[in-house]
Design brief:
The relative contact order is 0.11. By secondary structure, the chain is α/β, with parallel strands linked by helices. Strands 13, 14, 15, 20, 23, 24, 30, 31, 32, 33 and 34 form an 11-stranded mixed beta sheet that branches. A 7-stranded mixed beta sheet has the order 12-11-4-1-2-3-29. It contains 16 helices and 34 strands.
Length: 716
């Protein structure tokens, strides 16, 4: 699946095929690229929740059928093999949200069994009298205490003796669990007791999945570290089984093609590494959308973007400056209150700094307790889907509203492979209209406008928190619903320029093809900079890099193509929030201290405006990142879609928000628009996987990489 960089000058005579597949909440997208030429084919099918791998293989088989037919027709021969398959999935996220993971046990240091329940003792909404707190993934009766103890430096205060270990094993056997998490106090500094427990558990219960905090999240903050380790154990049996089955299915269709898995930090790893730490896959699909947007920006010389990815279930955004996305090392998942910080499970993993800013195409509209129209958070998903799918969905969704407003062509959804029923959409909207004493059209626009306004408001805050002005950004749309809503969201943000990538409806797959191999490691050891034991730090970095290189090797990355960075979470002693700094790889010794301090002070000033006179700087956590070199990738349509002139399919009446009325606008076949084409909005560009809606006055141009660039001329 993949991405061939520029026009490859391959010495081999065979066609090279790479495939990417991304499982979303509603659709499973697939994309194949052939080199030389970087020609792409796109596939899409409804996600199969009961067996996600079924949709993956359906899309792969469809792509290979089309590709081999094209190659045979063009050259009279077929490709010899698929080079690799890169995969992104929301399966980990869905498992945590739906609480459908494995029966999990937890082993902790004596006296800390209630850490999961106590959490941070913070009310995420001070005024909600019926506040709902997320339930721990491991109930209290499945938490076991080990009679051991380390101090903050990692020194053994109380050893783990054999008798206590046997007692633990007996208790664990009686729990009937499928997985166990081990999170001992201060194990991020010294993992000796965690390894003792793991060895004993493997010997006594060889089939039990084990997650160690020292291997999953080697960082301070007991609750967050425990939450992360437990979440990994909770999803591990399911993901191991899924990845093993998927690997078999992939090899049946593409013998010899390695399966690579996208991780939340914006890189890929091997299937084996993903099965060991599946929590790293938590944001793998959305991360692919960001990488696609960044690839488009690099191709067109744009440094500051707001990546906007809207699918069937959610809409997410990410700020990227200087061609790089911001990376967060902690975030929340499975929130009880979807958009309220503090209402979810904290996870300590490196992830592209994404924010969920709104609902997706399948989000269901309803009338709330105050008699007002609301959208989401409930989603119709792939089954039964929006009402217009005709699969049994009864609630009015964003997709139904888009259809009612003329933004979608009922006869061209998925290129005509799936028909949308306008009558069913109207009936679903009319139920809400009757309750609200409005017309179905007014309700449809209300749904669309609420979604757009909510997304714009959340994105505005996200950009401001990063210290930027949205008016200086370009907005890049991916996802099936992204191009439908992007112009209106950008207009509300006063962002003048919008880009829609080639095959935007499968944008996450384009990102998977452009993804580098990546590995991250961390080690917490809070120490004042003046007191750092550089020999110890150098020794730990040598161990971390050796381990990281093994993982990169298993993912198929060449050592010579890897760039390394040394990172650190720093603050002034006594403060509660860290500043992330990073330096290109260098020899780890005391000589790097001045460079570390310069970078810390630069970042601190950027965030807070000034330094703290007389304060003592401190390193909390050391980090290591290895990543293969990122290159720009240009793609072209796989078959002969581009004609000599733009093809206008006709006109369709759509709702224009500025004029507040329906009006006919031209509808173009996007595949027919070659680079350099210029047209004026309002208009609609249709493709198989998505629809770009430009409902206001705008200049539209097709760029050299087939990206559609929209310059908005009408903001009020």
């Amino acid at each position: 699946m993949g991405i061939v960089v520029t026009k490859a000058k391959a010495k081999t005579t065979r066609d090279r095929i790479r495939i990417a597949v991304d499982i979303g909440g509603t659709f499973t997208d697939g994309l194949a690229v052939i080199a030389p030429g970087n020609r792409i084919w796109v596939g899409k099918t409804l996600t199969t929740p009961d067996d996600p791998g079924e949709a993956v293989t359906t899309v792969m088989a469809d792509l290979l059928r089309h590709i081999l037919k094209q190659i045979a027709a063009a050259r009279g021969r077929g490709a010899r093999a698929v080079d690799d398959v890169v995969h992104g999935t929301t399966l980990v996220t869905n498992t945590l949200i739906e609480r459908k993971g494995a029966r999990t046990g937890l082993v902790v240091t004596q006296g800390t069994r209630d850490v999961l329940t106590i959490a941070r003792e913070i009310r995420y909404d001070l005024y909600d009298l019926n506040l709902e707190i997320p339930e721990p993934l491991v109930p209290a009766d499945k938490r076991l205490e080990a009679g051991e103890r380390l101090d903050v430096s990692g020194a053994i205060v109380k050893p783990l003796d054999g008798e206590d270990l046997q007692r633990l094993l007996d208790q664990l056997g009686a729990l009937g669990v499928e997985a166990v998490a081990v999170c001992l106090l201060h194990a991020y500094v010294n993992d000796v007791h965690e390894k003792q427990i793991a060895a004993a558990v493997k010997k006594r219960f060889p089939g039990l999945a084990i997650s160690l905090s020292s291997g999953i999240a080697r960082e301070i903050r007991e609750y967050e570290r425990m939450s992360t380790t437990v979440a990994n154990a909770y999803v591990q049996p399911l993901m191991t089984e899924y990845l093993n089955r998927l690997d078999q299915r992939v090899h049946e269709l593409a013998p010899g093609a390695p399966l690579k898995i996208m991780v939340s930090s914006g890189g890929f790893t091997s299937g084996r590494a993903a099965a060991e730490t599946p929590i790293l896959l938590l944001e793998s699909g959305p991360a692919g959308g960001v990488l696609s947007a960044l690839n488009t920006a690099r191709n067109n010389g744009i440094a500051e973007i707001l990546a906007f990815d809207m699918g069937g279930t959610t809409a997410k955004a990410c700020v990227a400056v200087g061609g790089e996305p911001l990376i967060s090392h902690s975030f929340e998942c499975a929130r009880v209150s979807r958009f309220k910080r503090g209402s979810g499970l904290p996870i300590l993993i490196p992830s592209i700094d994404l924010i969920e800013i709104g609902a997706g195409g399948g989000s269901i509209a309803h009338v709330n307790e105050l008699g007002l129209l609301n959208v989401g958070p409930q989603s119709s998903g792939a089954v039964p889907g929006p009402a217009c799918y005709g699969l049994g969905g009864a609630g009015a969704t964003v997709t139904d509203a888009d259809l009612m407003l003329g933004y979608l062509n009922p006869d061209n959804f998925l290129g005509g492979a799936m028909k949308l029923d306008t009558g069913l959409a109207r009936n679903a909207l009319q139920k809400l209209a009757t309750e609200l004493k409005l017309t179905a059209t007014e309700v449809a626009w209300g749904i669309c406008n609420i979604v757009n306004e909510n997304m714009a408001a959340a994105a505005r805050i996200h950009i401001a928190e990063k210290g930027h002005d949205p008016r200086s950004f370009a907005m890049v749309a991916t996802g099936g619903a992204g191009p439908v809503h992007v112009v209106e969201v950008a207009r509300k943000l006063q962002i003048p320029r919008v880009l829609a990538t080639i095959a935007a409806g499968a944008g996450s797959c384009l990102g998977l093809l452009a993804a580098p191999a990546r590995v991250d490691r961390s080690w917490s050891n809070p120490t004042l900079v003046a007191e750092i034991d550089w020999r110890k730090v150098a020794h730990v970095y040598a161990e971390l890099r050796a381990d990281a290189e093994e993982e990169l090797k298993s993912a198929g990355a060449r050592d010579a193509a890897i760039k390394w960075w040394i990172g650190a979470e720093m603050r002034y002693a006594g403060q509660g929030h860290n500043v992330s700094v990073a330096l290109p790889w260098r020899k780890v010794n005391a000589a790097m201290a001045p460079a570390l301090m310069r970078e810390f002070e630069r970042c601190y000033r950027q965030f807070y405006g000034h330094l703290v006179p007389g304060a003592a700087p401190q390193v909390i956590t050391w980090r290591l990142t290895g990543r293969s070199v990122v290159k720009s990738h240009r793609f072209a349509w796989g078959d002969t879609r581009v004609s000599a002139k733009a093809v206008m399919r006709g006109k369709r009446s759509i709702y224009l928000p500025v004029k507040r009325k329906f009006q006919p606008v031209p509808v173009y076949d996007r595949y027919s628009l070659k680079p350099g084409t210029r047209i004026k909005g309002p208009l609609i560009l249709e493709e198989r996987e998505s629809t770009l809606v430009v409902p206001v006055a705008a200049d539209v141009k097709i760029l050299a990489d087939y990206t559609v660039a929209v310059t908005i001329r009408e903001f009020t």
